[in-house]
Amino acid sequence: MSSTAPNNDAKRYVVARKDEIAEGGRIIVKVEDQEVGIYRLNGKFHAILNRCPHLKGPLCLGGVVSEVYSPMPGDIRGNPSKLFVTCPWHNWEFDVDTGQSYWSARGPRARLFPVEIEHGDEVTAELESGSVGRVPGPYKAEVVPVSLEADYLVLTMRGIPRS
Ligand code: FES
Questions:
Q1: How far apart (Å, rounded) are the C-alpha atoms in residues 60 and 137?
Q2: Does 94 fall in a domain?
Q3: CATH number of the domain that residue 40 is part of
Q4: Does 161 fall in a domain?
Q5: 10-residue averages of pLDDT along the chain (163 residues)
Q6: Long-range contacts of 5-13 (CB under 8 A, 24+ apart)
Q7: How many angstroms does the Cα of residue 68 sit away from the middle of ligand 1?
Q8: C-beta separation of 77 from 71 below 8 A
Q9: How far apart, in whole angstroms, are the C-alpha atoms of residue 14 and residue 148?
Q10: Which domain holds residue 14?
Q11: pTM as predicted
Q12: For the chain, how many structural domains are there in total?
């Protein structure tokens, strides 16, 4: 792997040729003593630190799942444009675009809140408009900027804390 001198403290590394990762595939590279998983999903490249923010499990050894929604009882659908990496240790899921999780095992218990039933299409429209939101979990995986330059993937490593 080669690096270039960037501005400030970031360093950029050529880590793979574009064609080394098939659509839906993933490789793990080691850069600055850190393992980074590089994914090619829906034609886009994503890079995520291979260290789960929960208990430091090997996050990138888990699978990739899509968002699931149900417009009506018994009708369960996947949204292939919204993808999550699943940690193999405790199955926490992290958004491949932002690293954010949306599941908190330590959430409040036995406290009641109003709940309504809404049609799935309505919920999807509300999510897209921002009138409803997801509740971020307490953890966020480190996502690493990755760019495609000619036929090579280039990582930008900056300020990732050591384990
Ligand atoms: S270490 Fe990843 S979910 Fe617990």
A1: 19
A2: yes
A3: 2.102.10.10
A4: no
A5: 55 84 92 88 90 90 92 89 92 87 56 54 81 72 84 81 66
A6: 6/156, 8/158, 9/158, 9/159, 10/156, 10/157, 10/158, 10/159, 11/156, 11/157, 11/158, 12/154, 12/155, 12/156, 12/157, 13/154, 13/155, 13/157
A7: 21
A8: yes
A9: 9
A10: 2-67+78-100+139-155
A11: 0.72
A12: 1
Ligand 1 centroid vs 56 CA: distance in angstroms?
6
Sheet holding 75-86, edge to edge: 64-72, 75-86, 93-95
Q: Ligand 1 pocket, 55 CB below 6 A?
A: yes
Does the residue 92 lie in any domain?
Answer: yes
Among 49, 86, 90, 142, the mutation site with the greatest number of ligand 1 atoms within 8 A of its Cβ is 90
The response to whether residue 30 sits with its C-beta less than 6 Å from ligand 1 reads no
User: Which atom of ligand 1 is nearest to 87's Cα?
Assistant: 2
